[in-house]
Amino acid sequence: MMLFGKSIVVVSLIMAALPRTAIADNPVVYGLMLPRGSKKVAEDRYVSPYDLRHTVKFFRKLFSRQGKWHGKRIRQVMNIPAAKVVHISNSVSKDGWNGVNISQYKGVVHIYILKRKSYPDPKNVTPIGAGKKGRKIDKNNKK
To answer: Would you give the distance in Å from CA 139 to the centre of its chain?
Structure first.
């Protein structure tokens, strides 16, 4: 009976560590976490390993999980058979990104991050989803 209790504790500790591991694998650009497996192809441009629907779903979950919908809006810009484009706008001035364009063309999903002109040093900012309750943390101040 005691062995069963210890195994539950070990499994729960492993499960608690998994989200942190998953978060660490995702690329972060200007404080915005991208889907795991996204590859950089140019400055502020990435290719998502998922289709458009799952890439947009990733961002919806990211913002809703941390209660970060304030100031963000997702809208479909173009929907024709050849290409689909979704834009995520961000009016929160503390974030390092103004918007994200997600486009699917010929089966490839591209993510283009629009950098905010005045952005703090990225080394001192914890990305959305990595800090306590999704708040940005100044690593120098440790608050």
So the answer is: 20
